[in-house]
Amino acid sequence: MSHTPTLKLGRSTATNVIRCLSGIATSEPSQPVVLTPIPGPKSQELKTAMAKVHQNPSVKFFVDYEKSFGNYLVDADGNVILDTFMQISSIPLGYNHPELVALHKDPRFITAAVSRPALGSFPRTDFADLVKNALISIAPKGLTHVQTMMDGTGANENAIKTAFIKYQTNRRGGKPPTTEDLISCMNQELPGTPHLSVLGFHGAFHGRSLAMLSVTRSKAVHKVDIPAFDWPIALFPRYKYPLEKFEEYNRAEDEKALKSVRDLIASRKKENRDVAAIIVEPIQSEGGDFHGSPEFFRELQKIAADNGITFIVDEVQTGGGASGTLWAHEQWDLPTSPDIVTFSKKALIGGYYYKDEWKVNEPYRIYNTWMGEPTKLVTLEKAVEVIKRDNLVQKTKDVGIELRRGLSVLEAIYPRLIFNVRGMGTLTAFDTSDTKTRDKLLDIALARGLQIGGCGDTSIRFRPALIFDEPHLKLTLEILERAIKDL
């Protein structure tokens, strides 16, 4: 496998790429180099300056993006860090991929950036082609429509709105809202403002907007002080690993979670507060990298269908190839596609795919000024071309297998510090003994030049780019073992 991103460019194109990369790194370092503590003095100075103009409690350190390349980021103090977290799973081809950087000369990119269209009302003449090339070309099987949004939170929010509209439209026999509906909704009264709810899961994360916080249950700090909808929260399986040794226990976890879903739907129905949508992540990434089995998700989809409930799969963090398939839910062997699949992060733009029956026909019901970002579609169009050309999804699947194999070796040596190794593709995680140990391990690894991510109370997760390869994996495991020894 290649150590750096593979370029297949003609001579003239390559020359143009090099010219456009003036001032930007064009090669990947061979290993991390740590010169200062992280954050270093320059990062601390920048954070002080930032505090005068912008909130910054969550800032870890500042990055020199011009010097970062491939799987490595360079911070403000010149520290070269192997990044297996990749902006919280958001960059598909690593930092400053030459073919993506070269796009800044594309007239479509320039005009979209300078004269940014309000896509909800005045889209570009080539907008349909951009959507087709960038998004429909990688659409989950069975989903032929897509709606662009700015980010994952907006995607989930509007997917839920779509589900509510669908539920009420079905109640009206397919007819549009009545005059009574339109008048009563302005006073937030029945029937125009229905008593509907969305079923989410303990440990879930779907965003930080007001509505999404009502189905987010990953960290208390996200929710405290914020009013919330009274929406039901079901159990999500909590498996023991390795899976093959705990089949009976894990099957019971599935049944317990599914029973809670059925019971909540039934109780809400009796109270005339129907569940209109179920939203679920393939992996509860922020909540602790918890997984569900294919059997669990197939039954969950069946429960939704039997009750006329929209089945929404939140692939904001898992979509785009990191699971070893373009979409993680493809590994569930569902009898039909989900009703809606949301995305963002590695897709570079937010949005959701949906079945034809979920199309909203009235104007301004699913709407905002920007409705996404056309420059991101131009970038994604090229990224999809590179991903397909270089077979990066399959490579990610293969590297993910080796990553978990390497972590399992470490688990056998250090069972009190690393256990419950699990994952799909490079979406891989393990647990540590407690929060303090987890946080210390992350700090030590970073001090050695390896960036990983924490999640939940005690978990560590890997979210590398699709160009993460065997040499990067070897370094990752070596640095991680040294960090474990330092504990």
Protein architecture, described:
It holds the Pfam family Aminotran_3. One of its GO terms (biological process) is gamma-aminobutyric acid catabolic process. Its cofactor is pyridoxal 5'-phosphate. This is Gamma-amino-N-butyrate transaminase. It catalyses: 4-aminobutanoate + 2-oxoglutarate = succinate semialdehyde + L-glutamate. This protein has two domains: 119-387, Type I PLP-dependent aspartate aminotransferase-like (Major domain) (Aspartate Aminotransferase, domain 2, 3-Layer(aba) Sandwich), CATH 3.40.640; 390-487, Aspartate Aminotransferase, domain 1 (Alpha-Beta Complex). Strands 3-11-10-9-6-4-5 form a seven-stranded mixed sheet, sandwiched between helices. It has a four-stranded antiparallel sheet with strand order 12-13-16-15, with helices on one face. A three-stranded mixed sheet has the order 1-2-14. The longest helix has 24 residues, at 247-270. Helix content is 38%, strand content 13%. The chain is globular, with a radius of gyration of 23 Å. With 487 residues, the chain is of the alpha/beta class. It contains 16 helices and 16 strands. The chain has helices at 11-20, 41-51, 86-89, 98-101, 107-114, 127-134, 152-171, 179-185, 210-213, 220-223, 247-270, 294-306, 374-389, 392-413, 435-447, 470-486; strands spanning 72-74, 80-83, 145-149, 197-201, 233-234, 275-280, 283-284, 290-291, 310-314, 340-343, 350-354, 419-424, 427-431, 450-451, 453-455, 459-462. Mean pLDDT is 95; it is low at 1-20. The two termini are 33 Å apart.
